[in-house]
Amino acid sequence: MVRFIFVTGGVVSSLGKGIASASIATLLQSRGYKVRIRKLDPYLNIDPGTMNPYEHGEVYVTEDGAETDLDLGHYERFTEINSKKSDNITTGKIYQNIITKERNGDYKGSTVQIIPHVTDEIKKFITSDLTNEDFVICEIGGTVGDIESLPFLEAIRQYSNEVGSKNCLFVHLTLVPYIKSAAELKTKPTQHSVKELRSIGIQPDMILCRSESLIPNEEKAKIALFCNVEKTNVFQSIDVKSIYEVPIKYQEEGLDKKILDHFKIVNKKNPKLNNWKAFNKKLNNKKNNNVKISIVGKYTHLKDAYKSLNEALIHASVYNNINLDLNWIESSEIKNLKDLKHKLEKTNGILIPGGFGKRGVEGKILSIQLARVKKIPFFGICFGMQISIIELARNLLGLKDSNSTELSKTKNPVVCLMEEWVKEKKIFKGEKNKIGGSMRLGSYPAKIKKDSLLYKIYGNKSLIHERHRHRYEVNSSYKSMLEKKGVIFSANSPDGKLPEAIELKNHPWFVGVQFHPELKSRPFSPHKIFISFIEAAIKNKKLNT
Ligand code: GLN
Fold first, then answer.
1. Domain hosting residue 144, numbered range
2. In which residue ranges of the chain is pLDDT below 70?
3. Residue 208: φ, ψ to 5°
4. What pLDDT, on the 0 to 100 scale, is given for residue 427?
5. What is the CATH number of the domain that holds 76?
6. Number of domains, the chain
7. Residue 288 confidence (pLDDT)
């Protein structure tokens, strides 16, 4: 019988519900259980695909092509289980389903209401598409008290009532702030948040208290008393240096054991989490080897916008045993070459991540030119690869007006929509309706050219599968011209029509990929391209010192 663990949050947002949910799943997984994590997002968008990364952070893409909340990235990195479309729902999607049903007459004339129709739809989502999981962890987005989250909380309350409280566990994550002037930790916000939750009919079974310092037992006892939970079910969620320490901390406090106790499950396993401990040890062990990677992007002021990228770089740097010195450069603030050189001082590798739209593109082109000419390792991801094609066409082929049709009208559309090819080049005749102008989303195969750098990176593999999220493609009509100038199209779609990766002949490490390898990097299996990029940056550093 599948058991449900519902994770809610209170007091403020950004307390780390996603990491808490992922950690709970990891701990149960390490005791041998099959787990699944799902995210219920109360906002009205159908999915975060259209949201500004500044508002919502990165859009994480699953194997099966769903554009989802960035927390799903944490779930995958922690559990190494691929999420599916059916693991993320929003109020927008729930309402879309309901309105479609209403228009189809499925409600047979009844008045469509939040209770039971919306709550039923939420319960259906929670319980659908399961495959013999022992535990399903459902994270409810937002903060208790938000208007939007009410139907979700009502739905999980109803569900627990239906299947019995012994098959459900409510975990509430709150903040216990430290007030400097009083030199005290304050439990009142937690009390209020739990009061709010109880007024909706949910009594939390466990409280995880996020705090910057250790919560003394008396404070825990106070929380237990006021919030009506067992004293041993009040856990500390202390600030840690890295998210990868969180499962270890929770285990030290016995969180997994108490979860199993709640479900009356006896489990004799005593997982050591050795791989997690070893990873953290390597991460925290200060080396005398600093490698500087500059990321030239558009949303550099909000690190959440590049969450998976950041994590993939951390994984590869731990693997290569270096201290990662990340230099975030806002591309729209690059004034000229002199300014760029100053911003890139002592850089051992330049990375241009995925992106959309015009802002800051010229600064990115300049960075690529510098990386190419000065032989600095360069890694272009998705938009980063597309822009590197623009740079190469402009400066190697002399086609100065080369551009992507996403950015400008041009006589040399080196990057364009597939249907534009259909119209102008007739390359994709007959395939228009298949792919059209929609996004290429999720996992696609690519064939790697033998003897390329990429072939070596993937361990002599000739067929790979990577995740995509883009609308535009590199225009292969320019392929042979670029090849003559030393550009290698090191991976292509299996039919050979879509360029998937490029590299440069006379350069130590210049790789552009149309896909997003950062989405598949895991702490215990860093992505091979990131490992190789960091290795190239280490070599660059050695050469320059
Ligand atoms: N804007 C580009 C496109 O739509 C690249 C997208 C991306 O980098 N994810 O094709």
1. 3-262
2. 419-437
3. -105, 120
4. 43
5. 3.40.50.300
6. 2
7. 77
- For the question of residue 473 being annotated catalytic, the response is no
Query: To which residue do tokens 């989250």 refer?
Result: 149
- Integer Rg of the chain from CA: 25
Closest approach atom of ligand 1 to CA 355:
8
Per-residue pLDDT tens over the stretch 12-49: 888 899 999 999 999 999 999 999 999 999 999 888 88
Residues 14 and 126 in one domain: yes
Q: Quote the ligand 1 centre to 475 CA distance (angstroms).
A: 14
Residues 208 and 76 in one domain: yes
Half-sphere exposure of 246 (CA within 13 A, CB side): 23
518 is catalytic: yes
Residue 380 one-letter amino acid: G
516 is catalytic: yes
Cα distances (angstroms) measured from residue 543 to each of 102, 287, 346, 538, 539: 67, 19, 12, 9, 6
Q: Is the CB of 355 under 6 A from ligand 1?
A: yes
Residue 415 and residue 493 in one domain: yes
- Whether residues 383 and 480 share a domain: the answer is yes
**pTM (two decimals):** 0.93
For ligand 1, the distance from its centroid to the CA atom of residue 489, given in whole angstroms, is 19
How much distance in Å is there from the Cα of 535 to the middle of ligand 1?
A: 27
Residue 108 and residue 216 in one domain: yes
Residue 506 is given by DSSP the state T
Instruction: Provide φ and ψ at 469, rounded to 5°.
Output: -160, 85
